[in-house]
Amino acid sequence: MKALITGITGQDGSYLAEFLLAKGYDVYGIIRRSSSFNTARIDGIYQDPHTLGAKLHLVYGDLNDASSLNRIIRTVRPDEIYNLGAQSHVRVSFDIPEYTAEITALGTVRLLEAIRESGLKPRFYQASSSEMFGKVQEVPQRETTPFYPRSPYGAAKVYAHWITVNYREAYGLFACSGILFNHESPRRGETFVTRKITKAAARIKLGLQRELFLGNLDAKRDWGYAGDYVEAMWRMLQQDQPGDYVVATGETHTVREFLDVAFGHLDIDWQRHVQIDPRYYRPTEVDLLIGDASKARRQLGWKPTVDFHQLAVMMVDADLEAERLKLQGTASKGN
Ligand code: NDP
Ligand code: GDR
User: Fold this and answer.
1) Under CATH, what is the fold of the domain 193-220+251-287+307-334?
2) pLDDT confidence bin for 100, thresholds 50/70/90
3) ipTM > 0.90 for the complex
4) DSSP symbols for 168-191
């Protein structure tokens, strides 16, 4: 089996690639040109392309470049495609709304068109988001809850979601959307709130930092573990029929509670270090997310294995270790 992943260098792409390689897949990942290395998350599974029997293949392309997508699909001829590539930062989407729509929304239809034009019938996974629910319409949120996005990112994801549904209905494509609620890990991007907190807690513990500037501490999120969530993506594409699924833990917590667990784990009082900087507020906020994943549980046999407390502790421990290693590296350079 061959799988093609957009966004392989991101948090989810790296976990999904590991998961699929372990299942024996040939994994093709689209990477984009960058002036600095952007493959740190997949360094652990990198295989030299000159090695006989290499199973991981990286190809240059961009969701903004239709011809690259056409070429990759034609030449790779994947059995499964996972569209994880996106401008994925909600706050940043207010600063670059047009670019966000270009990649997160139009990138999806470019990919779907490339599939259609190829004449191939790969199974397709779209990375939809709980941000599509936005302003609270129903609690907990499920597959039938109406969308009310509250950011350019959320609006772009709603387009990508519906165009995926449309290609399923119009062209019979086996296309699934996973409506995933927030999921985190030690590989989470450092500007998302959980990782920002766990990294700062570790650095404060080691005396490398004193203050942490944050925005809205009252927002509530349903936080799960990324390693669990990529398995749900794969399970969706193994069903007899395509469909859309909410993937969530069913628990919600405030940013404040995440601070309590993360800093508490290191015996630090976060109130002495955290300051509010309004620049991290969003013009419109999503106040409360809590998902009902009973369809995924029932039909995919999927359930989360890591709870909120374990997740925060796992991330703090990983950051503490990483910061210690950096410190040792700096010290040995000085010798
Ligand atoms: P990340 O931000 O960690 O990764 C995004 C990936 O998209 C990176 O590999 C990035 O490449 C790539 N990318 C960005 N722009 C382009 C482009 N123009 N062409 C090709 N690739 C591009 O996101 P996550 O791994 O956290 O999320 C994966 C997907 O799931 C995203 O679509 C996100 O919106 C969605 N999602 C995430 C959730 C979460 O809680 N993590 C929840 C619900 C949905 P590069 O490394 O070069 O920047
Ligand atoms: P989110 O994640 O917007 O839910 O999108 P993020 O971690 O950025 O924010 C979560 C909540 O924390 C509040 N917050 C802050 N956020 C950031 N980034 N930085 C801060 O300093 C800060 N202070 C408070 C935010 O206001 C928000 O309420 C993530 C992304 O992965 C999306 O791609 C994905 O679709 C959704 O999760 C589900």
Assistant:
1) UDP-galactose 4-epimerase; domain 1 (3.90.25)
2) very high
3) yes
4) HHHH---EEEEEEPPEE-TTS-TT
